[in-house]
Amino acid sequence: MVDEYTAIHPNVKITLVENPYEDYWTKLPLALQGTDGPAIFNVHNSYHENLISYLAPYDIPLEDLEADFVGVSAHEIDGNVYYTDYGMMTATMYYNKAMWDAAGLTEADIPKTWDQFREVAKKLTIRDENGELVQAGFSFNGGAQGDVLGMQYQYGQNLFTEDNKVTFNNEAIRTVVNRMKDIYEVDGSGDYNFGNNSGDNFGQGMVAMYLGWGFMHNLFKSLWPETDFGSFEIPTPTEDVPYAYHRYNGESTFGINKNAPADQQAVAQDIVRFFLANDALQKEFCLANSVFPAKRSLAQDEDILSVSSIAVLAEHIDRYIWPGPMPSAVENNMKIALENIFYNGEDVETALQNAEDLCNEELAMSEFVSVEPQYQYADEAK
Amino acid sequence: MAFVGSFHLWNPLKGQYRFTGLQNWRMVFRSSLFWQSMGNTALFAAVAVAARLVIGMALALALHTRLIRRQSLYRTLYYLPTITPMVAVAFVWKFMYDPQFGLINQVLGTKINWLFDARYAMSAILLLTIWKDFGYAVVILLGGLYSLPADCYEAAEMDGASAIQRFAFLTLPLLKPTMVFIVITSLISYFQTYIP
Question: What number is the ipTM of this complex?
Answer without folding.
Answer: 0.73
